[in-house]
């Protein structure tokens, strides 16, 4: 019997050997999940994500042991996503629109920056963050609205340069309301965002019209709050890195890039050199430039939160000798133009009047709680603008979910009838 137990013990030891690495990866994965607050709906889903994580772990290790690489990778917040999943969730520059603008930029209609600083006055390095013209890093989440973050970042920059005031602007307003050509979380282009701001005579603040990370109904009241304005915008001729440098020396500049490579997904620091495609699928903001160890680079502000790159930023190689630049950064650059002052602050909306003697606070809707012969005897206030008052005289629903289901105490967007 003893020899049998000994034999079983040897078998167990034998099978433990190849699982050591798996066990250490599993422990690392558990620590990673805690660090980034990741949870999964089932054990099956967790096992799938663990396998993806292990593949990314091997990819990161293989890259980082290369002695000649100028940048490093890490198991960042995207380490449980395949590259295909990552591309589907976090990129949102419209390829068809970008191709159109690239063709336009090659023609005589391209605006090449008559108000840029002179080439002789361009400093050897510049960081608009140090000049107070860059807001904090934002996080678009899984909404493909990178175009809106790039556009607001450029407008925030030129507004601070012209007025001395750094105001964080609303990407959500662009996502909800800019529907002529852009498609919210489905993708868009910065030039169309600039056109929208110009036609709307301004854009609201991030604080007043906060980001929700999903498509929504345009808030018409907040659409009228024109806190920051621009007068025009310009497109830098494609493949003209000298003109791009001139533009960045003048203000932060929106650019399209290819951000779908695995190395871009897992980037953590250093000067990014690729390899990557020049097929544009992501939008970022150039906020400066510098040099290190003989390599020139752009300072890129991304919109994937502080857990990506260098606290949300990337250094990308410039002066590569290729017309397109790394990841196509020289191919689709644009910038807002501001010459007029911002309008005076909009007056705060007053209280909502229910009748001669009854008022609700600003942003609320009057709903009748008790009536007799068509006359409301008692009013109550619903905490929503332009809300729908339910027939039970107790509940109310927001205007974009106007169907009252008082039995379940919920509001519906569309009324479904079962046959």
Automatic annotation (TrEMBL):
SUPFAM superfamilies: Cysteine proteinases, Granulin repeat
Keywords: Disulfide bond, Glycoprotein, Hydrolase, Protease, Signal, Thiol protease
Database matches in Gene3D superfamilies: Cysteine proteinases, Granulin
SMART domains, per the entry: GRAN (SM00277), Inhibitor_I29 (SM00848), Pept_C1 (SM00645)
Keyword Transmembrane annotated: no
Signal peptide coordinates: 1-22
Domain Peptidase C1A papain C-terminal: 122-337
Granulins domain segment(s): 354-411
Residues annotated as domain Cathepsin propeptide inhibitor: 29-86
UniProt family annotation: Belongs to the peptidase C1 family.
Protein name from the UniProt record: Uncharacterized protein
Source organism per UniProt: Rehmannia glutinosa
